[in-house]
Design goal:
Layout: E1 2-4, E2 11-13, E3 15-21, H1 26-30, H2 32-45, E4 53-63, E5 66-75, H3 76-85, E6 92-100, E7 106-111, E8 121-122, E9 133-134, E10 137-138, H4 140-152, E11 160-161, E12 165-170, E13 173-181, H5 186-199, E14 205-211, H6 223-233
Parallel strand pairs: 1-4, 3-5, 6-13
Antiparallel strand pairs: 2-12, 4-5, 7-8, 7-14, 9-10, 11-13, 12-13
């Protein structure tokens, strides 16, 4: 198991080759009892949580602009336990579609109070699942389009995607992101997101958050988002 990544800064990524290993993650096997006990506590505190399937990495590295890694399917309970303790041997990666409006604002979301990240602000996203892999390789575009569509109702096909990716990695969590530029102003994108949330029976997000150059960051902004915002407007 190895994790060779630049930490704490945004760096470009030329290509991504992260694959799914059909075998169990050693972290999940070695910490099975602790994961179960922690899940009992998490679920008691928030019965809205769902113990579905996500993935955790057993390796990830960046060399010559090429990102390669190996991940394994685990229960969501294992991810929550890892997130709380950050034990070695496992790391987490996910994708962000960084939405840029026609007036150069960033359009993020605030998570709902019933989620595992209540009140947190970041771009619409979700952990990789088995459906996000094609022939064993992660489909970043598919994951981002699905998560953005489910949470905000926006269609990434209506935006212009940048050619390459970037990543930011810190404390064992790595976000792989790409900017998607819409012609619409931020206020209109936010209005469409609000309409989508209002139409949902159980929306996952509380609503949109517009981030503009020079404005103070709102409460709840995740540390990786602070890095991406500063990089974008810098």
């Amino acid at each position: 198991m190895s994790f060779a990544l630049p930490r704490g800064r945004v760096v470009p990524v030329r290509s991504v080759d992260v694959r799914l290993d059909p075998g169990p993650h050693p972290f999940a096997l070695e910490n099975a009892d602790a994961i179960e006990a922690n899940w009992g506590q998490e679920f008691a505190a928030n019965p809205a949580l769902f113990d579905g399937e996500v993935v955790l990495l057993s390796s990830l590295g960046l060399e010559g602009g090429r990102l390669t890694g190996l991940c394994h399917e685990v229960r969501y309970a294992a991810l929550l336990y890892w997130r709380k303790h950050r034990r070695p041997g496992a790391e987490h990666a996910y994708a962000h579609a960084a939405i840029v409006s026609g007036d150069d604002a960033l359009v993020a979301i605030r998570m709902g109070s019933h989620t595992a990240n209540p009140g947190k602000v970041y771009f619409a996203a979700g952990s990789f699942e088995s459906i996000d892999f094609r022939d064993g390789q992660v489909d970043l575009e598919g994951n981002m389009a699905r998560e953005v569509g489910e949470e905000t109702g926006l269609d990434l096909a209506a935006a212009r995607a940048e050619a390459g990716y970037h990543l930011f990695s810190a404390e064992g969590a790595t976000v792989i992101f790409r900017r998607y530029r819409y012609d619409l102003p931020a206020a209109e994108l936010a209005r469409r997101i609000e309409a989508h949330v209002a139409a949902e029976t159980e929306p996952e997000i509380a609503g949109p958050v517009i981030l503009r150059r020079g404005d103070p960051l709102p409460e709840g902004v995740m540390p990786h988002m602070k890095a991406i915002v500063e990089w974008h407007f810098g």
